[in-house]
Amino acid sequence: MACLFARMTDLVNDTGVVVQIREVEGDDDGKGELFATLQIGDRTVIRGMRFLDRMADLGPRSIHVTAILAAGTTTLIFAAQYFAAYGRVVFRLHNQQLVDEPEEMSGIRRMRPVRFLACVCANHQNGRRGS
Fold it and tell me: Does the residue 125 lie in any domain?
């Protein structure tokens, strides 16, 4: 097990309602894949580069953040690279509309340790090198 540092983004739900974050590819009609559900007052940390637009076969990616209100929903749609630019994004409600308040942070403040499994493979044949 090894450890590196990666630029992270803190997502904060300060809306007073449940917020869902979906990763949507191309013409997916906003359904997409549920990435996270933030309960009231919740926060989650993601790698800032998590949602890079990899231009899959279905087209460009977008991130849909939806607040679930008693009278329906309100949604913000972001470009895939949006979260890579900020250190913290706080979601709030203003007149029943979802708004975001991004905060820029210096690169060093965004760095957090990330664990990964390192695998080292050697090209040995019959226990001899160079054969």
Answer: no
pLDDT tens, position by position, 56-100:
555 677 889 999 999 899 999 988 778 877 888 999 999 999 999
8 Å CB contact between 22 and 32: yes
Nearest alpha carbon to residue 8 among 63, 89, 84, 70: 84
DSSP letter assigned to residue 27: T
In a domain, residue 130? The reply is: no
Q: Count the residues in the chain.
A: 131
Main-chain dihedrals φ then ψ at residue 66, nearest 5 degrees: -120, 130
Residue 131 lies in a domain: no
Quick one: which H or E segment has residue 62?
A: strand 61-69
| CA 43/CA 19 separation, integer angstroms | 10
Q: How far apart are CA 60 and CA 25, in angstroms?
A: 6
Residue type at position 36: A
For residues 100 and 76, is the Cβ–Cβ distance under 8 A?
yes
Residues 39-69 as b/e (b if ≥16 CB within 10 A, e otherwise) read eeeeeeebebeebebeeeeeeebbbbbbbeb
